[in-house]
Amino acid sequence: QVQLVESGGDLVQPGGSLRLSCKASGSTLGITNMGWYRQPPGQQHEFVAAITEGGSPNYADSVQGRFTISRDAAKNTVYLQMNNLKPEDTAVYSCYHQRWDNMHYWGQGTQVTVSS
What we know:
Layout: E1 2-7, E2 11-12, E3 18-26, E4 31-39, E5 46-51, E6 57-59, E7 67-72, E8 77-82, E9 91-99, E10 104-106, E11 110-114
Parallel strand pairs: 2-11
Antiparallel strand pairs: 1-3, 3-8, 4-5, 4-9, 5-6, 7-8, 9-10, 9-11
């Protein structure tokens, strides 16, 4: 079983940057994709970014060009670098690991608030 611990959420001004981290413990054998979803207040859970075992990223249109997902296999950690943050990026950001059989492991979520 995989346990995910997230960090990095904070209050930031529009145009600012944050880096989210999600470190996994336990066995990561069989994990394919890793990534992030978010849930803005009062809205649906939505895809943000993902990265494959081979390192290929993909992004939601709303964050493409501003966010960068990366992974460090040696540290069992996935990151989300968020630049040029906008108020509409305000959300609880949750990390996931996807197993080969489509089982998802989730972190607890970390709050990102973009406001002046």
